[in-house]
Amino acid sequence: MREIYLDNSATTRVAEPAAQAVYEMLVHCYGNPSSLHRKGLEAENRITAARESLANLLDCDPAQITFTSGGTEANNLALLGVAEARVRKGKRIVTTAFEHSSVDAAAGRLEQLGWEVVRVKPDVAGHIDAKKVVAAVDSSTVLVSCMCVNNEVGTILPIGQIVKGIRRRNPGTLIHCDCVQALGKMPLSMRRMDLDLATVSAHKIYGPKGSGALYVRRGVRVLPRQLGGSQEKKLRPGTEAAALIVGFGTAAALAREHLEADARRIADLNQELRCRLLAMPQVVINSPADALPAVLNISVPGYRSETMMHFLEERGISVSSGSACSKGAKSHVLSAMGLDPALIDSALRVSFGRYNTKEDVEDFVLALREGICTLAHRERPKSAFI
């Protein structure tokens, strides 16, 4: 049975060069980067090269990149580290109602500590109104945190408008952007985007799990969440995961090389799938038309997500019902959009990557049609959307 992997927003297959780089570091270049001997210097030099590679992809100074264990740690470091550093300037944070759970949970922790957190809701199409985000900022707002691309429906947030509006309204407010789902799929420039902080992760761009990074603009103060050594400018102390970081750097170089070609191919796959699904009256497309092509969220009302996912998996097709971090819980993203419960309960997320083909799309559509016919005998549709 052929494997069809359509869950690239959850994680990606590690690219061969990145995997080889990790192996080489583990087996041959295994020194502690902080050690003063030759093996340590070799590892440190490889980390420096990886930092430069990621900086090239992000269009920033390598010194502005702090490596972490992943996107979740980087998001927590951004929100909690900025809050602690700037608590005397105010205790208000603005974010959106459909952020990744690592941002939402960090904001929730600040609420427990007495902070005011404003969550701007998306509309039913999944769009965020930049004016509403800017309007929520006042003189006590120390941080605004908005994702670049929503991980479940693919909405591209108007970060440029948000940043410009906040700079005019309160120049002292810092701006953080979770760019995990955007990295490698669309051009990102820290210089042009005028961000103070940004989060990225290796395993979304065909790199290893366990490595991420936080971009911090020079002069922005963030207090560490861990204490110990002097690694990563003391912002993220502890012995660096050199092998994973080097794998990240290799994946970043490949992402920069393949960015335009990947984007074109994935856009074609998205358009092909949209056209085929529009011919299926049982299917509702939840992602807006202007969403990032890498993500397409759909619903088959009356057919529970878990049931349809298992049916597809039996045919070698991997999709998800939403964010992998939710562990199968109902989507807070679709709920924030105000979608009908029948759509939320039947949602599937298809996410494309570098290795997908039109044949994958064809097989997915055939399997979905088969699932609708087969499962109709097990779960009778009850939704008015049918």
Task: Please provide a written account of the structure.
Residues 381-386 have low confidence and may be disordered. This protein has 386 residues and is α/β, with parallel strands linked by helices. It contains 12 helices and 12 strands. Helix 1 (16-27) runs antiparallel to helix 8 (242-278) and helix 2 (38-58) packs parallel to helix 8. It is globular. A 7-stranded mixed sheet has the order 2-8-7-6-5-3-4, with helices on both faces. Strands 9-10-12 form a 3-stranded antiparallel sheet. A two-stranded parallel ribbon has the order 1-11.
Describe, in short, the structure shown.
The chain is α/β, with parallel strands linked by helices. 40% of the residues lie in helices and 13% in strands.
Key features of this structure:
single chain, 386 residues, alpha/beta, 7-stranded mixed beta sheet, 3-stranded antiparallel beta sheet, 12 helices, 12 strands, 40% helix
